[in-house]
Amino acid sequence: MNAKQRQEAIWENVFAQARIAGALAGRAANPNPMLVQIDGGKIYEVPGGPCGFAWVTVRPGNSPVANWLKKRFTVEDGTAWKPAYGGGIQLWVWDFDQSMVRKAAYARAYAETLKANGIAAVAGSRMD
């Protein structure tokens, strides 16, 4: 195994740890249910809380780890990335349906795991 392959194996392990940390944090999150009333009629409870999105941004977008992510993360394997506003790449959270609270918890734990392993990352989220 050459140096590049060793580095990529390390990144594969770090991102696997980040996925586990994110999944545990998302499951542990306790969103307040959201109540929705449609056209003044029946009120529905959304147990996952507000709907929204979350992501992890890795910067800079041309770093060795970001270049590896661009090749490694694809829609075909259930992961994806896109260019981040202001530079870097964004890894979107696909788990936890539409629950912004659970997705944001996932993203924070994921980013913290990356940072703990020397990868510049920050979590973000927004309501839908």
Question: What is this structure, in a nutshell?
Answer:
The protein has 128 residues and is an alpha+beta fold. 41% of the residues lie in helices and 23% in strands. Helix 1 packs antiparallel against helix 3.
State the end-to-end CA separation. 45 Å
Q: Into which percentage range does the β-strand content fall?
A: 15-25%
Level of helix content?
A: 40-55%
Low-confidence region ranges: none
Question: SSE order in H/E notation?
Answer: HEEEHEEHE
Q: Structural class of the helices, strands and pairings?
A: alpha+beta
Apparent shape: elongated
Strand order of the largest sheet: 4-5-3-6
Query: Got a strand count?
Result: 6
Number of domains: 1
Gyration radius, to the nearest Å?
A: 17 Å
Number of helices: 3
Largest sheet: 4 strands, antiparallel
Give the overall average pLDDT: 91
Secondary structure topology:
Layout: H1 3-28, E1 34-37, E2 43-46, E3 52-58, H2 64-72, E4 81-83, E5 89-92, H3 100-116, E6 121-127
Antiparallel strand pairs: 1-2, 3-5, 3-6, 4-5
Helix pairs in contact: 1-3
